[in-house]
Amino acid sequence: MAERRAEKVLSAAFLSTDLAPGKYFDGGNIGLFLRVEPNGKRFWVQRLTVKGKRTEIGLGSFPLVKLADARARATDNKRMAVLGGDPLEAKRKAKDALTFTQAMDLFLAKKEAEFGNEKHKRQWRSTLDAYALPVLGGLSVASVETRHVLKVLEPIWNDKTETASRLRQRIEAVLSWATVAGHRTGDNPARWKGNLAELLAKPSKVADKGNHPALALADAPRWWKALAQREGMAARALQFIAMTLARSGEVRGMTWGEVDLKAALWTVPAERMKMGREHRVPLTKEAVAILEALPRMDGSPYVFFAPKGGQLSDMTISAVMRRMQEAEVAAGRVGYLDPRSKRPAVPHGLRSTFRGWAADVGFERDMAEMALAHNVGSAVERAYQRSDMLERRRAMLDSWGSVLKGIDGSASVLPLRKP
By CB atoms within 10 Å of each CB, which of 26, 51, 128, 301 scores lowest? Predict the structure, then answer.
């Protein structure tokens, strides 16, 4: 395997390109390099001397471990080795230590009696499962630092401020329990006052916190083409979200038992819907094609499953859009920004993009709202309105799919409004 020494430090833009198999060294003096396998997989490795013996330490796979994180880990290892320590031994000890996931389970088992109701209990666990565990889950509670907590919170701090604020409090509570129980020492890295308050905007001051940044309609075809070129289950889930306008949680929890490929129909049960009502989603030919091309995992009911068979995390799907934006910026472009707030678009903002387009081209308000699974009219009106306009919504989503592909979606729009 060829070694390629960098004249200067590696960059995110360089790492996003197609790299031939080999070793790509960072330009620093910490022995960090990216190993690219013939099958395309990429791993961070550090080469350093520990107690007089040259060794290599794995630092995780790319892009799960980003360049900045790999450098931080390598710097810590280098510092430890220079001071006479053994990073490999420390890594082995960390594996035997209590992980954040284990600490969370122990904490919640003791905390459950304090929860007012079952819903509150589920909310505690679900937010930690969805956002904290993908970053903190495998770390020992003793090694969790402020930078790790920031990695959890920053992606959702502006767009899901209330959720992020509660999440921070819950992480702080788990780590506080771990400290009292003797599993860690020192300050709590999730503490707000005098800690994260200096690094994050005050929740009350975050601009447009109630609005999810939307994709500009003019950018939709370019965004869709770039997304189609990305690999991975999260990218396919994001495509499906864009085509069906479903919420991220509805798609992540989608099971094969809810899907009828022959009828091109997905029926989401009431218990998984925000409004508490069953929702039928018509599937376009492109949506069906995506489902038919997906692999299936034995023992997992989920359509878009995580590597171990569970649900994808919300952050995993959001990360796809974030990486797409980063690639645009690295290429010297402004990327996919909300036309009003100028903030990078997020998955939930696709629903706003669709809603604006549907209004502009003349689709009926009620039908567009039904596509988004919103309540339409008063309770009395809903009692009398038994039709969910399934086939008309199917035609509307066909037109929306044309917009995503860069075809004039208004060309096939029928005059649906009454004169």
Answer: 51
Say whether 374 sits in a helix, a strand or coil: coil
Rounded Cα distance, 326 and 333, in Å? 10
- DSSP H or E run through 391: helix 390-404
The tokens describing 124, both together, are 């505690």
Q: Nearest 5°: CA angle at 143, between 137 and 148?
A: 60
* CATH superfamily name and code, 217-404: Intergrase catalytic core (1.10.443.10)
φ, ψ for residue 267 (rounded to 5)?
-110, 115
The sign one gets for the Cα dihedral 304, 347, 250, 285 is negative
| pLDDT tens sequence across 362-390 | 898 889 999 998 876 545 444 445 568 89
Quote the CA–CA distance of 159 and 207 in Å, as a whole number.
9
Mean pLDDT of 201-211: 67
pTM here?
Answer: 0.53
The DSSP code for 165 is H
Q: Please check the confidence at residue 263 and state whether its pLDDT lies above 60.
A: yes
CATH topology of domain 3-85: Double Stranded RNA Binding Domain (3.30.160)
